[in-house]
Amino acid sequence: TTTATERSTSAAPPTTAYTPIETSTTLVPCAIEPLNAYEQSPSSFRLTWSPAKCAFDNYIIQLSSASDKISVTSPEYTLNDLFCATQYSYSVYCEKDGNVVDHSVQVSFVTKPLAVPDLWASEI
After folding, report:
1. What is the pTM assigned to this prediction?
2. CA–CA distance, 53 with 32 (Å, rounded to integer)
């Protein structure tokens, strides 16, 4: 039989004992920025943003002019059937398991007024 002293001096060198560090679980910001809005036509805009840097299930687009939320999985979306000469604002949220993980700032854009063709008045 071997004694405790013999075991510690034979074979492998002693290892350093590490004390585990306690950490708390915090949500990492998704960094949904920058938000951009590009005109596609007088009645549609393409919304884009940088991909999220956190774990998430989908993006939620919230328009200030609508109570409906739009759920997408890629960092872009095209809004169609917009009214002319109207200001719109939108924000993007990351959602994980039905909970908001992080959100963006709100960005605004304005659709152009309806183009009126040249009108000619005839002599009376």
Report:
1. 0.66
2. 8
Task: Tell me the sheet residues that pair with 46.
Answer: 38, 78
Tokens coding 102:
């992080």
**Closest residue by Cα to residue 82 from 37, 35, 17:** 37
Please tell me whether residue 4 adopts helix, strand or coil conformation: helix
pLDDT digits (tens, 9 = 90+) for 35-89: 899 999 889 999 999 888 888 899 999 988 777 789 999 999 999 999 999 999 9
SS3 8: helix
Q: Which of 102, 103, 105 is nearest to 26 (CA)?
A: 102
CB-based burial label for 54 (10 Å; 0-12, 13-18, 19+)? middle
For 92-115, give the DSSP string: EEEEETTEEEEE---EEEEPPPPP
Closest CA to 105 of 50, 32, 28: 32
**C-alpha to C-alpha distance for 44 and 37, rounded to whole angstroms:** 10
